[in-house]
Each structure stands twice: as structure tokens, then as C-alpha cells.
Amino acid sequence: MKVKLKIFPIAGVNSKALLLEVEIKEGATVADLLCMAEQITGNRIPDTGVMVLLSGRAIDRCKEIDTRLEATDWLWIMPTLCGG
Amino acid sequence: MFTGGYTQKMIRINLNNLSYKEEHIPEEYYKLLLGGRGVAAKYYHDEIGADVLPFSEQNKIIIFNGPLTGMPVYAGTKFQLATKSPLTGKYLCSNSSGFFGPQLRRAGYDGIIIEGCAKNPTYITIEDDTVRFHDATKIMGYKTSETDEYIKTAHADRQYGVMSIGVGGEKLVTYACIQVDTRSFGRGGAGAVMGSKNLKCIAARGTEKLKMHDNEALKKYISANLKSCKEGKANHTKYGTAQYTEVINDLGCYSVKNFQTAVLDNAESIYAEEMVNKYKVKNTACFRCPIACTQVCEVKEGPFKGAKSDPEYETIGAFGGQCGVLDMAAIIAANEACDELGIDTMQTGTMIAFAMELYERGLLTKEDTSGLELNFGNGEAMVELVRKIGNREGIGDFLAKSFFEIERERPELSHYMMHVKGMAYAAYEPRGFYGMGLAYGTSARGACHNVGGWTIRDELTSGKFDRFALVGKGKMVKDIQDTRAYVDSLGICTVVRSGMGFSDQPKDKVLEYVTGYDFTPDLMAIGERIYTLERINMQREGVSRKDDYLAERTMTEKLPSGMAKDKVLTREMYDIMLDEYYELRHWDEDGLPTPEGIEKLGLRPLINESQA
Predict the structure, then answer these.
(1) For residue B89, pLDDT beyond 90
(2) Which of B149, B188, B424, B456 fits a 20 to 30 Å CA distance from B26?
(3) Torsion angle, CA of B181/B186/B191/B194, rounded to 10 degrees?
């Protein structure tokens, strides 16, 4: 199945926003997609200053790393926003 | 009680007779209100009555540092201002970065109150404990950067912190700002109040050693946390707040074409990535900031060649999203023009977007606009209109007024005015996340995303709240507002506050290391106290529930596209949040603080009953 993955510009990861439709296997998890994002960008996604949105819902990467993805899901990897 | 931080002294300057005196600040004010925004609100309460008009001699400019302003902490750069706003006609609190606050502290002062009106153009220098008044005739009409340079050259000292106004302030544009080095007291028109007092500039320079309770412990704490503070904000260093544009637009919450929609199509050209890759020259930092989020950009070619400024999220939202301009060069030029004329980019962008919508609907004609084709997307017309507003020429004079003045002249235009209490919405669409609507409505100065509450993290990116839920938003907004009120009173920047333990659950001992007093357990209560004190200031100026509602468009029109498609925030929906909010604040159903609430918050000793 295919899910949408967007990686926003993140210092030390990628300097250009990437919007991809990626093929994943049935039962693939958030961890699998994060791993894929690291392979695509060639950089490690840092633990601080980055957040992950799963279909519009922010998730705790430690707690939800094994959450399984559905065909309609989309994942954003984005910088933490911290004040206007 | 305090063994560091505060100097407990302020200067009262009288422009009528060009005199000044030093005054002691009661310790109780700090204990109950911390400093900065809180103490400025208290002096406003005592000294600027409900009947004082913004441009009258009786209006005052009240400036206060927080206990951390100028201190060796992360970004101890912020200081606060209170005055009667020409934009809203009511209480205004405003904050700025820059070097003025830290220099004032080194000069030995926590604050300044400026009263009266100078007979002739004047500027003031504060050099340690000496205040001098100077003839400013020669520098009237100067751009803000020219004034800054003039002061540093004329007084042969580049360390001066300079607060100046541009032509916009001199000509009383209702949303003129005060430029502080390259930062500003942006919203609400404090620059026009300075202009009305014939005061072009105030500059401060101090050489006193700062007093701290435990300098060694503070140094140790600051250096131990520096790495994580910098790493956590690496994206701010690389892109600044401009990085929000893409996220907010993708989430369907952006300010677009006078809030007719919340998604800007083909917006890639104004995203941070494009700005940084094509226009960025360097980063600059505020006083002692390890993040350096300011992105200085320069246009190298085309009609705006040579323009140089540092666009932030809100400025890009005002000129890019609101005016539908997809040309970053035009945004950089409009930003530069605003900074040099000394007018607020946020209000200016929304006033131009308002005019563009009127033009496209035939409510303003080419005759009204002095020949400008004010269609959305016309970057050249936008930049020209900024110039006209700052100089109050033609259509610019009309748009330099407050929404209230325009409404009195042309009541049929009120449906297109996107504001609360006269202050334009920020670059977030409240139909895209409802708590932001409540933040705009209940902000202590008008539709502000900072004073009102930056709900983005809680509603859009933390997973804590459903952005379209209503129940629970009253508490969420109140907590964010209280946090911001105490942070604004500390004298630090909100971007780095969490690196020192300043959140809605305050921790660590930075304040104790500086002042010798452990404020930490009381900080949220102090924020709450400040917020209700500000409401009392506004209440006596006539503010009540009727003023806490959003613009008609927000409450009646559905969003046409994006992730928030078909969303609207009706009056009935809004009332659910507002009722919850009032109850938690101990305000009655008309939004007025109750005697029980005032008692509970410990506000009684601070309130002048005859004024209230």
C-alpha cells in the first residue's frame, strides 16, 4: 500500500521539503517510515527540535513507534514550532 | 528582599519642561507582578485614566524591564511598554527586543515613564544617571536606521540602545511602531504616541556592573543547558519563524486575501526554504541570544533590487498571504519600507489586504487609490502603498487610520474589517483552530497571537487538543495567556524560555540565582494576576463581552478549501469557549472581573478603587 510522507526542511536533515508517496508493506509501523525517511535524506532525524504528525495528530515517537499504518495515513516530519 | 536583578529605580521624564527625577519602585510591585509587562500595567492603572486620549498630553509612555533584562541568561533582551493605543483607543501592552532595555538596566534603571509633550522636536539620551534633552529638528524625517546611526555617531558611542520613530510616527499613523535597533514595539501605535509628544528618539547607555544574587550558580546553569537549547532550536537558527509558513498553509490555517480563504495556492516561492536559499545574507542575534533567529535577506535583482530586511512569519503572512503576493522580493521590500517608516508590518499588510478586497469588489475605485491597481498579488502596488501609508499620502492617509475611524466614515465597509478591538488578526486563521479565535477575542490588546495566546503547539502540533473542539479551549487559552504574561514580565524571549524552565509548569532556579527570591512556585499565579489587572484597565475603558467577539466574516462564512474546509466559528460555538474562559478567570458573564476573583488573585492592594 502507499502512504504520503512529507519531510519539511529540518536543519541537519534536509534543506528542501520532500513530499513523497511511498510504498510500504502491510503491517508497516511508524518506525519503518521514520527509517525510510532517514534513508531518503541520508541523515538521522534528531530527537530534539523535531515532531511527527500522523494523519494530522502529533505523536510521541517513543510511545507510538510501533503504531501500524493504514492506507489512508499520512506522516509529516516537521520542526518543533516554538512561539510566534 | 532582592539581592540582585532589580535596581528598584525608575526615571520619570517630563517633556513639558524637559525635566526628570528618579523614583523608587515599591518591592511589593515586583513580588506581585514580577516586572516588565506586569509593573507597566500597574503604573498604567494608576496614571492613565479612562478619559485620557491617546494623543493628549496626559497620555504617557511607560517602559519597564523584567528582572532578567540585560542579565547573562539566554536572550535577556526583552522589555515592555504600556500606553493608551491610538489604534484601539484602549490599554496597550507591547514588547520589544533590542539593546535599549539591557543598556537602561546598566544605566541603573528598571523603567522610565515619559509624560507631557515637548514644545519642539526633541530626543533624549540617558547615560548612566544623567538624562539630557536635545534638539531633534535636524533629524525629523529621518528613517529609523538613519536616526540610529545619527545617535551612535553624534555621541561617539556605538553601544547606545536606541528607540526611535520614523515618518509614520511623526505623522501619527495609528499603527506606527517604535523601532529599537532592528527590532520593534510593533503593534498598537506606540510610535504615534511618541510622535504626538514631539519625541523622535530615546537612547540609553549604561556602564554599571549588574548585580546578581548568585552569579556562579547562574553561569553554571546557563552553560550546562546551552547545547540542548541550541540543538532544540536549530531550525530557528536556519530559517527563523519563516519556517512556520509552509506548515500553517498546509494545515489550512493561513491568513489569505483578507481571510477570504486559509490556503495560499502556489506558495512555495514565499516559503522559508526559498527565502533562505535565494535571499538570505546572514543571521543576526538579539542581546545574548544563542539562537540568532533573525534572517537578514537582500534582493539582488529586479524591481526591488537593493531592498534589505529580515522577514518573519507574521510579516510574510501579512504581505505574502494576506496580499496574495507570491514574490519574496516584494515582501522583503515592503518589510524594509515599514521598518524605515516605522509602521507595524502586521497591521499594514492587513490594511492593504482590506483595501485590495474593497478594490476587487468595486468598493474602492482607481480614483480612490490614486491610480494604483490594488489587485491581490500586485507586489509593486503593495510596496508603493506601504510608502503612501507611512507618509499619509492619498489613499495611504485613509488606510493610516484605525478601523474604528474608517468605520465611522464608511460603515458599509465593516464586514471586511478583520480585527478585534481595532487590532488586525495575526497570520493565523481562527476557523482553522478554534482556540486561536478565543485567543484573539480575549487578548489583552486586540487580536494578538502572542498576548492572546500562541495556541499552535497545543492545538495543531502537540496532539493535546482536537483543533476543532470547543470544550477545554477556555482552560487551554487561559493557561497559555498566563504563561505568556509572566514570561513577558521576565524580560526574555519566548523562543528560548523553555531552555530556562519557564513553561506552564515553571521549574529551575534562574530567577532565584538572579534576584535572590524564589518566584518559581508563584509564576503562573503572577501571570494570572497580571492578566486580570490588564482586564481591569480595559474594563474601565468600556471593554466587556461585546468587545471579545471576532470579525463577522469568521463567524458567518465557511472556509472554502483546505484541511479546514467548511469550518466556521459561529457566535454560538464561540460562546461555549468564552463562557468556560470567563468562569476560569473569575470574570462574570459580561467579562468583568468579579470582587471575589480580585480578592482571590491578591489584586486588591494594587487596585485604585476610584480609577476602577
Answers:
(1) yes
(2) B188
(3) -80
Return the DSSP state at B261.
B
pLDDT attached to residue A84: 64
**Letter for the amino acid at B434?**
Y
Q: Which residues of B touch A59 (CB under 8 A)?
A: 463
Say if B458 is an interface residue toward chain A (CB within 8 Å): no
Number of C-beta neighbours around residue B288 at 10 A:
18
- Among B415, B473, B467, B413, which residue's Cα sits nearest to residue B442? B473
Position B610 scores a pLDDT of 58
DSSP string, B237-249: HHHGGGGHHHHHH
ipTM: 0.89
Cα atoms in the 13 Å half-sphere on the side-chain side of B259: 29
Residue pair B543/B34 in contact by the 8 Å Cβ criterion: no
Q: Which residues in chain A are closer than 8 Å to B463, comparing Cβ atoms? A: 57-60
- Residues 9-68 of chain A with CB under 8 A from chain B are 9-12, 15-17, 46, 48-49, 51, 53, 56-60
Which is nearest to B2 in space by CA: B47, B53, B56, B67?
B67
What is the interface size between A and B, counted as CB pairs within 8 Å? Answer: 82
**Can you tell me the mean pLDDT for B173-181?**
97
CA distance B151 to B179: 14
3-state secondary structure B166-201: CHHHHCCCCCECEEECCEEECCCCHHHHHHHCCEEE
Q: Decide if B463 and A49 are in contact by the 8 Å CB cutoff.
A: no
For residue A52, the chain B residues in CB contact (below 8 A) are none
